[in-house]
Amino acid sequence: DLLDPERLIQCPLVKHHRIRARRFPYHLVKCKESNPEIAKNLATCPFNARHLVPKNDLSEHIMKCRDKAFMEQDVVSQSCEPPQEQLNNGSTWQAPPCDEDWET
């Protein structure tokens, strides 16, 4: 199950490291610091920072990355919303006066 936080994931830096999914982002940070020579040969996927791939394979990974679909959905849904200026032009709402005094 991809959503199981207890599933084991193989580290892209050190192949014998197997980390629980919930700890994986933290492990990547520490493992990159501990293995700078390996880390400098890897590139981070623009769609998911947990995807570290060899720099030479990044463009192929980008074309096949399953997380790209989520990003594309966000772009499409944002383009379907009316521009912010249209929302502001039709509204008569005004913010209430602020009674806070940060100096006191």
Automatic annotation (TrEMBL):
Signal peptide: none annotated. The keyword Heme does not apply. Residues 8-35, 42-69 form the CHHC U11-48K-type domain. Residues 77-104 are annotated as: Disordered. GO terms for molecular function: zinc ion binding. InterPro entries: TRM13/UPF0224_CHHC_Znf_dom (IPR022776), UPF0224_FAM112_RNA_Proc (IPR051591), Znf_C2H2_sf (IPR036236). The keyword Metal-binding applies. Residues 77-94 have a biased composition (Polar residues). Keywords: Metal-binding, Zinc, Zinc-finger. This is GTSF1 factor.
